[in-house]
Amino acid sequence: MAGWLRRLFGREPPRREVDAATWARVEAALPFLGFLSAGERERLRAMALEFLAGKQFHGAHGFRLTDEILLGIALQACLPVLNIGLQAYRGWVGVVVYPGDFVIPRQVLDEDGVMHEYDDEVLGEAWEGGPVLVSWFGEGESPEGVNVVIHEFAHKLDMENGGVDGFPPLPAEMSRRAWADAFGEAYERFCAQVDAGEDTVIDPYGAEHPGEFFAVAAETFFLDPHGLLEAYPRVYEQLAAYFRLDPAAAGAREPQ
Fold this sequence. Notes:
This is Zinc-dependent peptidase. The chain is of the alpha/beta class.
């Protein structure tokens, strides 16, 4: 199979499908997919291949992107949109993958009009109308409780209606007021907990901004659904309705 995914990137159609052993090997590193039914898992695999066919991947600093890395990123990126659809990721094509965390130069203008420059060490970043930048870690090297791919692609969903404010476009059957009430109350309580130095089920980084709270809550929804449901039941309820998935109710299943 080696190298066949490269044919997906607009050059020629794939000549064969991913074999079962490769899927099993890639998914073994993503245990949070265990809540999916056999049918959902097959749809996710198909969507991941479609996603790879429509995006352009680049390994930063000469990082070699193997088929397993590409499939792993695609599965995680497509999980949030499994029941939303890939149209949510339209309008941009680039995915840049770094071998671990990386540095982005920043410029900040202070209140006195003085420009400050600094290097910001990050795990990922999503650019409105532009690419998604993500870190990739080897087995056992990923920061605990963090999923940079889901986090950054949650930002892309948030950006669908402009900017990053923690309020993505909702389906017609969902209430904007209910979303705002649930997330607003949870964010205020969460920030108070972080300020008080309390342990939180959601990464404290979510206190930086409502947009970050949404992205980190999306991570937790998939990585620790029972924890999110217990700590912030109204947020969990809104995310379950938005993603049209209910990992806490589904329970863990053995990989198919």
